[in-house]
Give the backbone structure.
Amino acid sequence: MVDLLDPETHRTYAARPERLRELVLGHPQAGTFVIDEVQRAPQLLDVVHRLIEEKRDRRFVLTGSSSRKLKRSGVDLLAGRALHRTLHPFMAAELGDDFDLKRNLRFGMIPLVLGASSPQETLAAYVSLYLREEVQAEGLVRDVGGFARFLEAISFSHGAQLNTSAVARECSVSRTTVEGYISILEDLLLGFTVPVFTKRAQRHLAQHSKFYFADTGLFGALRPAGPLDAPETIGGMALEGLVAQHLRAWIAYGRPDCELHYWRTKAGLEVDFVVYGPDTMLALEVKASSAVHSQDVRSLRSFAEDYPQSRGCLLYGGRERINVNGVMCLPVEDFLRTLVPTALPRLD
């Protein structure tokens, strides 16, 4: 394994990328070679390409926390010769009995954080590490202070429609700068956007995508709270984000032909998540409350009218499976615990 986070190793391979060839030829019986944080020495990809061409049964596992430097450097990205896979925060099914909804809403599902003796301190350090190491050290932005203000401002858009002009006004930068910052978050695997579901639309729909941090713990670490912030509002946003990151991981690991969307009409009807693929169409609404009322399922019923082939469900903070006006309502904790990449989720 070549660990490019190690300063001495990084200096060696950044100065002489051909050293990788010497290492591989020195281990002729090895079938797999791992290079961690490959974006720190992009020139190694040219060497990997040549080594693969020379011997097709060699396998390289190239890991990284950012694709931005690779894209900027214009190096060989091994198109057609490499499979792209993403690793996500833990899913509840992976944790089994160790999954604790209340705890994971607070600290998230990042393995480094969950395995720490002090999750809160580790989470805070994790956020500052990306600001210092990835953003500042790699020169991704000129104004680190502006980017820090942006992180706080964008936390108010977690689980909401993304209005880049409003975020720009909040942190005193231009709209194009905010768009660039969002791109940085996506490249650093810290955030993602969810587009509107518009296929065969029968109503006037919203146009803006929704934004989520990649882990609800990151949202909690960056979102400031004060006297004007209702705990149930922040808790609801965190819960929606937790479902979002689970669905995203479920798609990446087992349903790569599916896409994650949301649905919102100009009249204000909204379904938090629509999972759409060749044989899949799921509509999911998330409510943090422990009780469900008839108005809570109105949007799902409207979506089902427009798309009768869909399967809809409301996920809520209660403990019982109930049916409200023809819509199944499941405990969100049960849903997360049983969500595994090898099977469609049970919505009945």
Summary: The chain is about 40% helix and 15% strand. The chain has a mean pLDDT of 89.
